[in-house]
Amino acid sequence: MAEAGDASGGWLARLSGLGSYVCSKMNYHEYCSHEYTGIHTALHGLLEEKEKVEQEHKARLQLIAAKEELVKRNEELEAEIQSLKRKLQASEASDTPAQGSGREHNQSGRQVQITSVQKRKRQSEGHAGEDAEEHEAAEILCVMNSHEQGLSAELRDVREETSNINAELIKGFLDMGGVGRQNITVKYMGQLSERPFLLACLRKFLRKEAEAEASRLCKFWQEQLMNPEWYPFKCDTTGGISEETINDDDVKLQELRATWGEESYKALVKALVNSFLELKECGKLSDRTIVAQLWNFKEDRKATLSESVEYVCSKVKSLSNKNVRTSTCGY
């Protein structure tokens, strides 16, 4: 009795510590998830803003190029006009007006040159400012990318630790006889239940023979289910929406219907479909591997780590109290 009490106390202490550890890790996981989401959103917004700035910069460059082309064309036209004026003045007037015109032209030329230099300077200053903005944006992106990578690594570590805790809980449930009629226990995802096969067999055989036949049938269809090449579904499209349904033309299913009748066929196909869905939910359709999963049978869903730890602790505590009462009665 004392050894049983010590073992129960050890389990209780271990699982209580595990429960506290799980809660702290889950809180940290939630914090990292929120932080990661915030940074990812900010980074996405920054990338969109960067793309917008680049598009605006490209548009400005195109506009500058168009303006430069227009200025160049205007200068060419101005030069042609001045040349025509000089020729006209040379033919109708004396050299003095022509020299005055030349000075005016030189002055105009110098002014155009000064204006052009000033314009290029302003453009150069504008490009420098744009380059500085792009450089700053690139540095911010680099820092945020680095932070995001760090958080991704932390999230991977947290997920790995959570997976290890989940495996430890499953082992604990199995060691304590976790398979049975309990609110939370271990469910093997993808494993067929023998019950629908037994109900089908009871329609044709006596109890003992029905149990033997149900066991044989369940084993046979479990083997079919584990075969990755067998996929008894088809894709139906209704109203533009595609949906996978059971393929009643499948050879194995046709044999099942012919042998066991419509009522048993529907019940057994329902069991097969449920197992397929479980494998799909666990991502095991490709290799058809059965997966142990903590399951809340009361609510028919996956059990969370926190409620699994709480449930185990309550069971261990109940067992510990029972052992104490038994020990007391023995004395």
UniProtKB/TrEMBL annotation:
<feature type="compositionally biased region" description="Polar residues">
    <location>
        <begin position="108"/>
        <end position="117"/>
    </location>
</feature>
<protein>
    <recommendedName>
        <fullName>Factor of DNA methylation 1-5/IDN2 domain-containing protein</fullName>
    </recommendedName>
</protein>
<feature type="region of interest" description="Disordered">
    <location>
        <begin position="85"/>
        <end position="134"/>
    </location>
</feature>
<feature type="compositionally biased region" description="Basic and acidic residues">
    <location>
        <begin position="123"/>
        <end position="134"/>
    </location>
</feature>
<dbReference type="InterPro" id="IPR045177">
    <property type="entry name" value="FDM1-5/IDN2"/>
</dbReference>
<dbReference type="InterPro" id="IPR005379">
    <property type="entry name" value="FDM1-5/IDN2_XH"/>
</dbReference>
<dbReference type="Pfam" id="PF03469">
    <property type="entry name" value="XH"/>
</dbReference>
<dbReference type="GO" id="GO:0080188">
    <property type="term" value="P:gene silencing by siRNA-directed DNA methylation"/>
</dbReference>
<feature type="domain" description="Factor of DNA methylation 1-5/IDN2">
    <location>
        <begin position="187"/>
        <end position="322"/>
    </location>
</feature>
